Structures are given as structure tokens and as C-alpha cells.
Prior knowledge:
The chain is an alpha+beta fold. The protein is built from eleven helices and 19 strands.
Amino acid sequence: MTEANSAISGTCVWRGADMAGSPRWRRALDPAQVAALERALADAQRRGENWKSLTARTFPLPELAPLVADIRDELENGSGILKLSGVPVAGKSLDALRLLYFGLGRHVGTPVFQNRRGELMRAIRDEGGDLGARYGQVKTGEGGTFLSSYARTLSNGRLRFHTDRTDVVSLLCVRQARAGGVSKLCSSAAVHNAMQARRPDLATLLRAPIWRSRLGEESDRAEDVYPLPIFGQRDGRFTSHYSLTYIEAAQLVEGVPKLTSAQREAIEMLMTLAEELCFEMTLEPGDLQFINSHVTYHGRTEFEDDAASGRDRLLLRLWLSMPNSRALPEDHAVLWRDVAAGARRGGIAQTG
């Protein structure tokens, strides 16, 4: 078999049933590392730093250098996921948490923009109200409303398996919901391999371009579309970019080729395999989750808040461009802009 249709090998290929109880993706800050974070935070506060202006130099964490190297390696060359526990969030204001999180994130990678508003950090919570009007929607032919992926993220609803437009997405749990809001993760490389073994004809279809819409994060218009394969490889390294919402939005646009029955079957199989191969990760306050978008799909269960008891879900999110990232196929430049290994890439281009 050629590289394009061969099975993916390596530690990025895993089954959720095996990962659920495994220590390989778990790390915890020790007391000395927590103290280092607190010192860096106190110093930044004393200097009156704006969190957006922080760099690794202005938020020094020499005590965490081995841990940062381990995080980068596990994400790119290991399982592609990592949960770091023990981040000191209790009793801190949102301003302090932004300083702490951004300062730490600057050591791991380079934050990139998450929307056209130029946000480098996003509070992920149920914002309620008319999310479509604020974050993107399109009217359907049946008189209904189709919400953008961005609007769905800021609801309390379920999120289907997807990837984000960044090498690594990280989520810091500040508060968890009264119920639900569980993270679901699976190896996209394992999904690829299972489809290749069971239905190679369908796997081949997902290596060909499928039209997506930039509605929500990148555009107000569903008509801004682009073609991109779901599965790709370069130099023996796998990548998958997938969000059914962006595909569905493109299907509403006149002139965009309609998905064939075989393509729909392939996408349905992908979703079925993701459920079959996933595991659930519950984030508690102080947990920091890292996900490599190239080798992992993630989703979320719906959740129910109880603000009166302080159990209303709040996560802070960074999108990170990684210095040790893989090279991507040339046809992925339509999304990533720069596909070279280690390039600063991903995120949402700023046009204003």
C-alpha cells in the first residue's frame, strides 16, 4: 500500500477502552511547580502586566521546563492528549486566572486567534440567549436556523466529535457544571485505521477534498467555502481535520457539490467509529487539558449549570501553534496557511 492508504502506526493510535485507566496522559504539578506558578503570577501582578502581553520571558517558569518539554513531546510524538492536574485556580479572580493560564501557555506554544474579534483566550460557558445572532447562523430552506460551530460551543448542548483550527487546543477548568459537560476523546488515527480495515473504499473517499464553510469563526457568510480532505499524511505523519458542522453549512450553499451517498456513509462511519473508540475525561477545577488536533477528535456531553451553588461550567481556552509540530500536506494550506513543520500556523486570520 502507498503512504496515503496505509495504516497509521505509533503511540497516537489507541483505543479509548485502553486509555481510560492508563497513566500515560496524566500529569500533576508538584508543590515546587505550583509555587513557581504562584511566584510568576504575583510578579506579573506586581508589575501590572496585561495578560495579552505576557511572554515566556516575562512569565519565567524555569522549574517547569522539563514538564513543558514532556507536554510537547507527549502531544506530538505520544498519545496526542494530556491532562495536567493541580493548576492553582481556587480563590483567584478571572483576571488572575488569565495571567496565570496565558503565562503558562506561552511556554508550551504560541497562542493564535480563535475568532475574527482577535480573541487569544476564550471563556467557554453557556452564554444562552440568541447565540446564532451573535456568533453565526444561516437560514435553511425549510425556514429553520442552522447554528455555526462557534455558537454551539457557547451553549450547554452536546458537541459532536470535531477538531479545532489549531495544532493544540487547551482547556483550563475553572468550574464544572452541576451535571454533564464531560469531555470525550478518541484517536483520529485509530478511526482511520479501523475504517481502512473495514471499509477501505470509504476511507479513500475521506482522503479526497470535501467542501467546508468558514461560517462563524472566520466569516459571517456560509458562502465562504473551501475544499479539504478529512484524512491526510505527509512524511509518514497523519493529520485529520474534521467538523461535521462546517461540512453541513457548506451543503446549504448553492453551487457546492452535494455529498454523495458514499461520502455520507463514510462520514457516518467516522462518527460511529469515534464513539466506539473514545473514552470520557472528566475535568475538575484546576485540570488543564491539551489536545493535538491532528491526531485526536474531541467532543462534549450536554451539561446543566447551577449558578446558585457555584456549579456553573467555566473553562478558559487557548489555541496553541506548536514549535515541534508536524509538516502537513500541501493541499492543507487552504486552512492552515503555512504547512511547514514547526511553522506558526492555525487560528483565525485577522482581516481588520
